[in-house]
Amino acid sequence: MDILRQRRQKALALALCFILFSPGSDASCQAAASHSVALTAAKSRILVLHSYHQGYRWTDSISEGLRLSLADRPDIELSYYYLDSQRMPLLQQAAALESFLADQLALGGRPLALLCIDDDAFRFVLDRRDGLFSGIELLYCGVNFKEAYSEAELAAARGILESPDIRANLTLIQTLFPASQTVAVISDASTTGRLNKRIFERELAINGAMPPIIDLSELEPEALQEALKELPERSVILYLSYLLTPSGRRMSVDQSLSIIREASGAPMVACWDFIIEAGALGGRVVSGRLMGEGAAALIRARVDGKDSSQGPRDSPAIYEHLFHYSQLIKAGIAPGKLPEGSLVLGRPESLPTPAILGILALAFIVLLEGLTLVLLMRNKRRLKEAEFNYRILSEHIPTVVYKVELGQPNRRSYISPRLKDLFGWNEALWLQDQQAWNELIHPEDRERVLAAFKAADREESPGGLEYRLKTPTGAFTWVQSSWNYFTSPSGKRLALGIMSDINLAKDRESALEKLVGERELLLREVHHRVKNNLQIVSSLLRLESGGMDPQRAEARALEDAERRVYAMALVHELLYLQDLFGAVELRAYIERLALAIFDQEDDELSIELPKEELVISLDTAIPLGLICNEAMANIVKHAFPPGFDGKKVVRIAMRSDHDSATISIADNGIGLNARERARGKNEAPSIGMTLIDVLSQQIKGSYSLESLPENGTILSLSFPIPNKDT
User: Fold this and answer.
1) Which of 138, 320, 378, 597 would you call most buried, defined as having the most Cβ atoms within 10 angstroms of its Cβ?
2) What is residue 478's predicted lDDT score, i.e. its pLDDT?
3) Residue 609: exposed, middle, or buried by beta-carbon count in 10 A (0-12, 13-18, 19+)?
């Protein structure tokens, strides 16, 4: 029972880590959890298990198809999980995933059905169908290794098979490139690549009218590029797969196409939509979006009880003709030659007719005005008409226009009648009584405004400023004044300016500042409450463990959980105490955490704290705090066993450059080798080391745990940080 309880504690810790730090999770999860009880009875829950990771084109396209197709079904609730099998082999994470999903099913209830997307997810579920997923109906899509499953396995679920339409792409090559000299076929050493190669060979035997075939299968990048450089001028590339080299190196789609494009400019036909999106010419492709729509149809049928048939099915609805516009132009293929219904990415949109007419009208107006200006220069009457037009414009735009003739003293020569409409004063006041006008400026602004006008006229420097002006009602309104300097045809220096009423804009600015202040106050309150809630959890854990024997595994587990909760609570405490919203000053955080852990456990320890300051985001602070908590807890537990002779020292250091930082936590204890002998070399890694490993990957960091040359142990963690300038 103790072993079973420890395994469940480990699984709960991993589940907590995943829920807290998975992409898209935040404090709103608490509100969502409180809502879920009320909504469960009204919703049909479907668990969607992706083979790959969020952000991968194929995975996101399928999710998009699901989301759009089920947008009209609020009674269907989709829960997404990602196995991330491309970046981490399933064998390395199977146990952790199984434990995590077991707790999710226990906490959230068993779903109506489980949708497996791609082969890795389907195989993962089939291997646990009689245990973890017992009694849950299976759906799947994107499964293309039909030979990898028994007839009974395929018959036990409903789904859509995925197979590249190589026959259609061979026909497409003959249609679009009738003069091609060769077809170079590229595939890799992966299971998908070899399966696609067998399908190609079978289809090639049926279609015997193809140009000569050059087989470029399972080559290292350098050898592939050399072969591509030797292709004849009129060659076409058929891209089946090139994401895994024979030496085991995995590549992204962009890296794969870059290798090919560096060596050859031949047009490239492919069988999947994300290959076209990455820059291939086009083809009859398997569409992730359409695959998601097909999976949505399976879900609808299951929820509505309309289709109870089991087994695999082929779906022509997952294919579409997709092309890249820039590659079509490069290959000299007009979009009109493409198959009917083809989609073209990156096609420039033509201007609508009203826009074209508007541009033509604008061009005509500009040309007409140019001719008018030429005629006005030749004719005095036309010049007067231009002056009249200027007055009409200045008197009807929603701002005040004024003119001042510079001299000793300056002479105010013109102001538009809009002065009365906007500010309530007649033009005569501004033109004839400068002192009275100056008295209308708010006393707090007057000296600054008059000094700015005087300095601008002296230097003839364009500028602008804002100030308050009294209206006839006695109230003040905000004014924005801007000006520039010109020379008239008679040689006089003129200052031309405008005055605008910006009172409404100022009101909006004040309201916005108030909203910003309220938002900052709300954020402080949120972080304060989160910290209080976490402290309550910590207190409950402390109460639970207080009545236990400290040597019992349950008591130690509760103490570890209490320290981890404290590490997270401390982040939120610093967030509302410091003036860094959404960020934490790392040195102050580490100092608080270290003193809390070491002073509580061993008052004989000497602690050397970091001196450098570093501000990190909340997304990095919580995982980093948990890692530091585990490292310090390990020192307390293992570095200085009873009977340790000598001074106990813990050194915490931190350094950073413009894009990365490193934290090291070292002790002068018995060292890593002695700890391993005490624990047993074959014993499984502790939950603390498991958390350090998982959380390091989450913040895209790396760590090392080593013994020091003389004695002691050091944990070093490096992780990326944003550029300090940003």
Assistant:
1) 597
2) 92
3) middle
